[in-house]
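Interim report, section 4.2 (structural modelling).
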Amino acid sequence: MDIRVQEAAFDAGAELNAFTNAAQGAGAIVSFSGIVRDVAGGLNTMTIEHYPGMTEKALTDIAKQATDRFDLAHVMVIHRFGDLGPDEQIMMVATASRHRKAAFEGAAFLMDYLKSRAPFWKKEITQTSADWVESKAQDEDALSRW
Amino acid sequence: MDVVYFAWVRERIGLPRETVETQAETVADLVAELRAREARYDAAFEDVSALRVALDQELSDFDAPLKGVREVAFFPPMTGG
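Predicted structure of the assembly:
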């Protein structure tokens, strides 16, 4: 299990290659990347705040649950904080398992839980506004499928 | 006990962390004490259904007891990913 919370940018391709090497024998690997999207009015910066200490604990707990539930061979979560520009990588998860179904489901489970259970908050800053991103009811609803 | 605030809760109250002397038995009691202090606290805690609370870095509830808790965190629903 590889959990990282960091301010620095990362290279998703290099990370996926390293993850694939670390998960030798798994047979199936799924990865998801979250990217900063533009907003109406033109995004200058997305600021991501987090709760140091709790963030690492929450991500580790979610990754353990996913590992147990889907019998994953390896899990990686990288999530950035601080100031990000449009089209920058925010975060990445990768899962490895013997077969694709568990890898896909494990990645979807990780993302659903990470969205509403890991203590991150996003603020979108444009030329004229600075707004905290509001959580969506559908994000909470997504947990009920698990 | 240490009380920490994140995102718009932090902005509305105007500080990220403070130490609070309290005899509050539950989170809700602590919220009531804080609201009685000043308008900025009252505004931040106006609608607790829009807030989440963590006790010693674990998500919890507003009716949870505070006995033995060292750090209480208040924040809006999380928006990671």
